[in-house]
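Regression report. Comparing outputs from two consecutive submissions.

Submission 1:
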Amino acid sequence: MPNHHLGLAEILHPFHPLRGQRFPVLKTRRVAGIDTLILSHAERGSFSIPREWTDWGAPSAHDGQEAVAHYFDLGMLLDLTALIDQLPHSSSKK
């Protein structure tokens, strides 16, 4: 019996462990006021994820305007920390 699904959804949330992967969408639901997708995973079975965390998320509130999402980049923060650590430390005592 073939597995029917509604299409594929890619996980876009920057901190989700499955970010960048695409999964078949089995169902859409509204859970506690949040639009949710039920996705199929070959090894783990099905799991749910907020729709907004996928490429199925609602369009921007600024329709017609390009909106650029800005995400926290841990790698850049670590690079900045390493750079600051390399700076000579000055003493405030004279």
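Submission 2:
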Amino acid sequence: MAEIQASPALAHLEQQLKNGHAEALTAFWDYIAKEGAPLIEETENEDEVLLTFLWQAEAEADENVYILGGPAGWKLEEAKLVQLLDTNVYYRTLRTPLRSVAEYYVSPHDTFGDDWSARLQNLQEDPLNLHFLVHPANPDKPATQDTTTAVLVYPGFEPNPYRAVRQHAPHGEITQHRLKSEILENERSVWVYTPPGYTADGEPYSVLVLFDGFEYDKIVTAPTILDNLLADGKISPVVTVFVNANDRRNEEMRGTAMFAQFAAEEVTSFVREHYNVSTDPERAAIGGCSNGGLMGLIVAMQHPDIYGNVLSQSGSFAWGYDGEPEWFMHQLEKAEQVHLRVYMDVGTCEQPDIFEANHAIRDQLRQKGARVHYAEFKGGHDWVCWRETFADAVVALFGN
């Protein structure tokens, strides 16, 4: 979390209250109700802002309120809001780099101490923020439920226009399947998007395999983005496979050999058996965000004869492969040439291990001849960021 700063707006409110202007408090909350929170104030640096997170206490008694996630980070000792004088205003002001969008949570009435399990169950959206995102319950993760997170929208942010549904644009179809894995000894949902006008015979289609498929469908709204890119002639038609994660996601997708085998063998066989897709690796891509980008690059490096393209959004490459963090660098150092096309993006506000690993692998891939489309976005490890850059990723790999 960034260094705690003083908010000019709160300093002004504090001075008014000290001068006996009690009505200033009501006026302040009326303003927040209309404009929303957190407060965003300029600094002398155009690339930074002051963020003031707020909580309106129901009583004057001390409130234990924490702001967590996004620009606020996850360090409890730095996340607690403090009371302004003896009012119902609780706040925390931070100087942070300018972003596009970010997710964060509030943990109110928090007396959980070191019990993070209870705290995570207590997280909620910021009731003062006018923007929010619903993370729907994943059908393959029985313990999950719909979760609402606050979305911090920074000045100047413009949402990617390809996320908006166009009523008159042709729409592709989504078909749900259940895929049983002998390798992983479990099963999961798989959704397949077929583009408008898809036919089971004739010229085979390009194919894109995405991990964390439920979230790419429901949060990123990838089918809508694909429809719109096709309507505008930005990409060629592509069959897209949304492979769901289950409650063993961390165990499976942190660079494990078994999941890589599952993706290369069972997912590929399923898609080729049921859909009219090309077997040309130049027309096949695999990947996702975070651990999904990690697994996509692992599979493509091991099987360039199947997947010649990788889509990686904030790839968590620091996990490496099968317990070997330096696996990527070792493989790339000994490779004579890498025949892959890779889309990589990473947020300027990511954790250092993610940011640095993406830089190192990007440079090594390019040195070995891979075609790398690299981009940085002003944000962190958030679905609200990945849904904004997904269209760029698809155009980079399947653009006309």
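Expected: both submissions complete independently.
Actual: both completed, but the second showed a warning that disappeared on reload.
Relevant detail on submission 2: Residues 161-398 form a domain with the Rossmann fold fold (CATH 3.40.50.1820).
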